[in-house]
Amino acid sequence: MATELHFDCGTLVAPTLPDDARLRALFQKDARTGVYRTEAWRYREVVLRLRELKEPYEDRAKRFEPLSLELKVPIEPFPHQREALEAWTQAKGRGLVELPTGAGKTLLAVLAIAHIQRPTLVVVPTLDLMAQWQMVLSKHLGVEVGLLGGGVNDRRPVTVTTYDSATQQTEFHGNCFGLLICDECHHLPAPSYRFIAEGSLAPYRLGLSATLERTDGGERIAEELLGPRVYRAEIRELQGRYLAPYEVRRIEVQLPPEEKARYDEARARYVGFLRKNGISLSAPEGWARFLAQSQRSEEGRAAYRGYREQKRIALTSSAKVDVLWRILVEHRGDRVLVFTEDNETVYALARRLLLPVITHHTPVPERKTLLAAFASGELPVLLTSKVLNEGVDVPDARVGVILSGSGSVREHVQRLGRILRQRPGKRALLYEVCSAQTAESGISERRRQHSAYQEGP
């Protein structure tokens, strides 16, 4: 009897299996229905094993066939793009590629789609990126590109979706695509997103990221679901020829006496509570313990308010605003992106400096208008919190100012990447402004632990 393969809500089902230990180890017997069931992403391994055994099988699982795609707008790949594509191809169309922001990951994906010739689902983090990918894919492949997300439900052979939308729809369309591309694939290991890859049959997979490593080691999950890391290039390798040359300037500011006094008082209240209760924030469970303990007494709630206050003072010092103003005056002929840690800070800056803001609250049409004005030069300065950290193409930005941020290395590298798009004669400049003699200095040191910051340009 031929083995039948079926797709069922993100799983691969077989009513019967050959008597092969390796094949049966991939499946579990479903006690409810009596069939054999495994995660859909095992499809490729199952089919290859059946072929190796020369066992007849009937594939009723997949709902895709090869496409006829060609580049309508030719792409002449840079050497690193060509090497990455070759490495991925040699890995049989599975794997992760780590390239700096601005190094052409989207065009690499276009080349991969044209090479594999299969229906493709591209998964991206945001609606802005979804629209951006649709435009690039339509331009180079000359096909109508579908969208799933943001109120649009238009699935086509080449479709772009968001991680949030894909999570909800994979059980319905996980058998419709032969190539799965995960942009910013460091998001995929999150428990809520893994099903996007687990529930897809796609035998070909490509993960793209500028910074693959996660603090929780989750990149190993991305490697299991998408394939091993097959290519990597660093910012330092590509700057000057394929990325703009750049310089990083770190500026420390002193808190004014009144702010310093309030900072010290708030921090003493917060740190004193940690010591009294034996809480170490360097321990994996340290922050969770502090949150739990701080809500059990008035002393704890005062300590939490102290934590919030000392952080707010360090991140939003009036001395930082003065430095920012001097930077904007000095670079009044350039396009400048200003990054902050949170929305409260960026809105306060906007009111004080009368400058426009993009946050995750900004409606998509307004974002498009602001980004278009920034690209044209009509709007030379944009303030943002985190929404422009990832992916959004702002090639005309030459100066970046990190007024505040987290200790995340990824976030810091992404923000640097926003200003590295190559332009004739362009030299990018990143300012990092932090409050001296505060906890922010330690945060700054942690986020600078990347090769992009280890040497002079």
UniProtKB/TrEMBL annotation:
Annotated CDD domains: DEXHc_RE (cd17926)
Cross-referenced SUPFAM superfamilies: P-loop containing nucleoside triphosphate hydrolases
Stretches assigned to the Helicase ATP-binding domain: 86-230
Protein's name in the database: DNA 3'-5' helicase
InterPro entries on file: ATP-dep_DNA_Helicase (IPR050615), ERCC3_RAD25_C (IPR032438), Helicase/UvrB_N (IPR006935), Helicase_ATP-bd (IPR014001), Helicase_C-like (IPR001650), P-loop_NTPase (IPR027417), XPB_DRD (IPR040699)
SMART domains with a match to the protein in the record: DEXDc, HELICc
Domain named Helicase C-terminal: residues: 320-457
GO molecular-function terms, A-Z: 3'-5' DNA helicase activity; ATP binding; DNA binding; hydrolase activity
Recorded coiled-coil stretches: none
Domain of life assignment: Bacteria
EC number from the UniProt entry: 5.6.2.4
Catalytic activity: ATP + H2O = ADP + phosphate + H(+); Couples ATP hydrolysis with the unwinding of duplex DNA by translocating in the 3'-5' direction
One Pfam family from the record: XPB_DRD
Alphabetical UniProt keywords: ATP-binding, Helicase, Hydrolase, Isomerase, Nucleotide-binding
Record family assignment: Belongs to the helicase family. RAD25/XPB subfamily.
Source species taxonomy: Bacteria, Pseudomonadati, Myxococcota, Myxococcia, Myxococcales
